[in-house]
Amino acid sequence: MTNPGRNGPLAGLRVVEMAAIGPVPFAGTMLASMGAEILRIERPGKTFSDADVTAQGREFVTLDLKDPADQARALDLIAAADLLLEGFRPGVMERLGLGPEKAHARNPGLVYCRMTGWGQEGPLASAPGHDINYIAITGALHAIGTAAQPVQPLNLVGDYGGGALYLVVGALAALREAAATGRGQVVDAAMCDGALNLMLPYAAGRNSGGWVGEREKNVLDGGAHFYGVFECADGRFFSLGAIEPQFYAELRRLCGLDGPEWDAQLDKSAWPGLREKLRAVMKTKTRDEWTAILEGSDVCAAPVLEFDEAKTHPHLVARGAFVDGPGGPQPAAAPRFSAHKRHTPARPPAAPLAVDDAVARWTDAKK
Q: pTM value?
């Protein structure tokens, strides 16, 4: 079996990915972009389109996991893998005869990664949910939005930030330990855990009194006039992040904020009034006019771009931040490695591999 990732620091790593949605396939795509060989176990009848970025960089086999014979074939693949990614509710893999106990009996060095919303135990472990629910109980959702109500931050905080990224970090840490000891383990990655861990700096702020629980009362949540998003004359938006005194001074200079009232940068009681004044200033010019004045300056400023606009931003173009994927332009893999060429997304497979061939190849590769 060839490695769809072709090159990267994870070349030679064999990963079985149980078909799922959200963070598991995104984690698989990340691993594939770093050179890992991903084999996804799919349900019969599954097909992929070129636009399915979470199918790129891997091959797949189709198995009916309710069939004992196919369960045995799946276990054969798992026995030849270095890493397993699964995103079922707790207990499902055990009922399929593919749980950690059976997997480790066949493959003691396997890193068995479990991705769920609520985790493997706890009162909500078997409850359904989505990103918005997992971040709701952590305080993260409450902290994001306007003073009037929380606003869901797409599914970046739970599914991908607190989910896929923590899944990959856990997998790589456990793989390092397995390489040293020969013993695999189970990695329990829960989106509620990851999202909560992302709140660690804010928890410290609550403990010290530096962060209050009301939205638009803190520096980073829209409370401060010098850190936020402002509407421009053309109805588009511009971001300002002039936190440090020298950056704030440059904001004042370039935006003509001359009055003595602007001296009260850190006076929270002055923030609402100064925010309204700055809103009025920002509405005097279009977004692109403010870009010409502020972008790249010591203000810490950038236009708020729609995704299609981002593709042509000069900095992202210079970075090669978009690549030609099978379905069209898409974000390049990250991070970058000096010892390896940039990853080119592989076209999603048109047809499944023959299961017996996949088992034979992976088994031979492990010998």
A: 0.94
